[in-house]
Amino acid sequence: MSTWRIGGPAEAVYWPETVEDLSSVWKNAQEAEIPVRLIGRGSNVLFPDEGLPGITLVTTSLRGISWGDYTVRVEAGYTLARLAQEAGERGWSGLEFARGIPGSVGGAIMMNAGAHGGEMASRILSISTLWADGSIRKLERSQFEFAYRHCSLRGKAWVLEAQLMFSPGNREQILHHMKENLTKRTANQPLEEPNAGSVFRNPPGDSAGRLIEAAGWKGKTIGGAKVSEKHANFIVNTGRAKSKDVLALIEAIVLDVQIKYGITLQTEVESILTGNRGA
Ligand SMILES: Cc1cc2nc3c(=O)[nH]c(=O)nc-3n(C[C@H](O)[C@H](O)[C@H](O)COP(=O)(O)OP(=O)(O)OC[C@H]3O[C@@H](n4cnc5c(N)ncnc54)[C@H](O)[C@@H]3O)c2cc1C
Fold this sequence. Notes:
The chain is an alpha+beta fold. It contains six helices and 19 strands. The chain has a five-stranded antiparallel sheet, with helices on one face. It is globular. Bound molecules: flavin-adenine dinucleotide. Flavin-adenine dinucleotide binds at residues 3, 38-45, 59, 76, 101-104, 106-108, 110-111, 113-115, 158-159, 189, 191, 195-197, 270, 278.
């Protein structure tokens, strides 16, 4: 269930097919005091080795989409990269940065996913959200905030649907730009091994990958987890990695970089423990 392919079994997994379905499972689970968490495409999470109790909701069947006039209304589980490609095919510009990001629209909003100088925040018009009290609220872009890989709604509400905006562009140029971005990724990222993208956030004015490489961590392993030889900010699963291996590697890197450079790296990937409300 995660791109890292790490973690024990989930007690129950459910793929809601409609927003109503999702909110009714949430309400019933609340009443029965069963823990619930929600994931999208699992491309930014580390699941625990002991597995996940309660219900894990996966949004990937929430794939409704309707195209407007340089806008799109799209459900949370829609694949971001596919949306970027489809917008590009129409000659709509704005999501070129997202073509190689393997998340869902909802996950990308919560993470304010970004690359190549672009980020989700700049494309959002409004979102529809589910809150802990079961209410569904439509929020305009001005009613919540984004920062670097952060959305102010994280851990508070779930994204059900979003309305995004585009600018008119040149179809061939957009498609070419996306292809170039993909080529760069294939060259620089260990896409052939299970991973979860960048493990650490870039500290202000620097790059986490540069610091980790300079500290000598490229290729180092703990158990089945290895710092990629291709990109030091990626930890790959060499086949049998445990969550505890990844966490030990993260801890060791943080400590070493702190000692050598006085910078405390913060993780970008999320370690899901027993969780509730996506936290
Ligand atoms: C090879 C690779 C390359 C990557 N490159 C990039 C990159 O260039 N830029 C970048 O920013 N990221 C990148 N990532 C990380 C990841 O793809 C993004 O963070 C993505 O947006 C996560 O989406 P997801 O659906 O997989 O979220 P998940 O991993 O499923 O979840 C991540 C978090 O979001 C929450 N969440 C998911 N869906 C919702 C929802 N509908 N409502 C509320 N909360 C929700 C989850 O509870 C969890 O807290 C990369 C990952 C990989 C594996």
